[in-house]
Amino acid sequence: MTILSFWIQVVKMKNAMRFTVCLLFTLSITANAARPLRHDPSRPNVIVIMADDLGYADVGFNGCKDIPTPNIDSLARDGARFSSGYVTGPMCGPSRAGFITGQVQSRFGWHGNPNQPLNPTHGLPAGIKTVAHWMQQQGYVTGGVGKWHMGTSDDQHPNTLGFDDWYGFLSGGRLYYPLDHASYKGKYLTMNKPWGMRDMHHTMPILHNREPLEWEQYLTRELTDYGLRFIEKNRSDPFFLFMSYNAPHEYLEAPVETIAKFPAEKMTTIPGVKPQSRSIYAAMTYEMDLGIGKLLDSLSRLGLSEQTIVWFLSDNGGMKRTSDNRPLRGAKWDSFEGGLRVPLVVRWPGNVKPGTVLDFPVTSLDIGATAVSLAGVDLAKTDLDGVNITAYMTGQTLDAPHEELFWRTDRKIGHECGVLRMGDYKLIVQESKVQLFHLRDDLSETTDLSQSEPERVQSMLARWKELDQQSKPSYFTSIQKGKNAYQYVDYEWLKGSPHYHKKENQ
């Protein structure tokens, strides 16, 4: 029945009450048909864009001159920049484990980098809850794209750990082109190694959920395209997207036409960095920035910008041989600021004032805690270690969210290393050696104050040891000496890879 014919029937009605009911019914139908699908504005979408091994000074808003990052910079211009933004570890695996669980990772026994991608102990412990789980339980669609590096067993798979949709690779690094790319001929495929791969860590297949698939283009572009599809598909629902680029992590690879934009002789001179390496690294960072621009344009086109919080950070400091972490001391793997302090920005139009600079220390744990809290979860009923910093980044409070920050950053199992920041003071505990720095006066950590302030050292060391009581021993196990790390685990998803060639009894 059309609306016109419906009203003809109504006019014939004698009962005024029926007329009123029909009028209200018709108005409700018309209103519902015209109203676009909108989710609760108090439950914003959340996108976390994580770069891999990006240097502190390799973005424009931190002073980079040789790599243009206009889209990343736009997040700082239109939102807030955290000058003291930290991650929970100076290397990929621990940092990502801390972020995705929302916990200081040493609390569940994660101390170093998982270096055996098919060893089932080298990843998140079975049954652990993640930020994605919390968002999922609040009705959010959860998606992950890119690098995982938190285990490859079924218990450690993103789909098991709260992600409705996963598109990426599970190891800690990945070549940027498919294995049959012409440039790899004779380099990475061999029948003398399990699954026909010489370097398993960097040649694992791209998965859509648990299914291996073929892909053709430069990986950064491929990941961006899937991120765009996720946003488009879920534009009418609240969503949480972990956009985990592997750029600019080694291997150093980029399209030749992009590398050509960055002649080696025009790269910034950085101690220990070869101009040729810097050129490719710049191209990789530039490609990532282009991808981020496409994601932001998609939000604008779909009318989602104002209801979406976008975070950007690196998972740790940049590598010494490619990156610029100045004026910070150190790099990836280090407990100095160059390993732990990263570029960190947030954009939330209408809530975060454009151009805001926040100097108080925050950590990647606060990103998850803020997202979960905005989704409607009472943080007091969770085991998350972060703080909801909504009031801080929107200017509702000027206090610092943390009185102290704790790290256990063991580079190798059995080599104790930790950090405690209290106010402007930072203590580094490294086996039997301790160092003390005052970061406001000495950001580059050049002057060790441990001899001149012994009482402060003892007080902070005692506090670090107290907090470290919450740490659990490492649960990573090593493969038996002399045995190949990969011959004991034969995952079904690996068998779907086009380069799977495992032989019996190998």
Automatic annotation (TrEMBL):
<keyword id="KW-0732">Signal</keyword>
<keyword id="KW-0378">Hydrolase</keyword>
<dbReference type="InterPro" id="IPR050738">
    <property type="entry name" value="Sulfatase"/>
</dbReference>
<dbReference type="GO" id="GO:0004065">
    <property type="term" value="F:arylsulfatase activity"/>
</dbReference>
<feature type="domain" description="Sulfatase N-terminal">
    <location>
        <begin position="44"/>
        <end position="377"/>
    </location>
</feature>
<comment type="similarity">
    <text>Belongs to the sulfatase family.</text>
</comment>
<dbReference type="InterPro" id="IPR024607">
    <property type="entry name" value="Sulfatase_CS"/>
</dbReference>
<dbReference type="InterPro" id="IPR000917">
    <property type="entry name" value="Sulfatase_N"/>
</dbReference>
<dbReference type="Pfam" id="PF00884">
    <property type="entry name" value="Sulfatase"/>
</dbReference>
<feature type="signal peptide">
    <location>
        <begin position="1"/>
        <end position="33"/>
    </location>
</feature>
<dbReference type="InterPro" id="IPR017850">
    <property type="entry name" value="Alkaline_phosphatase_core_sf"/>
</dbReference>
<protein>
    <submittedName>
        <fullName>Arylsulfatase</fullName>
        <ecNumber>3.1.6.1</ecNumber>
    </submittedName>
</protein>
<dbReference type="GO" id="GO:0046872">
    <property type="term" value="F:metal ion binding"/>
</dbReference>
<keyword id="KW-0479">Metal-binding</keyword>
<keyword id="KW-0106">Calcium</keyword>
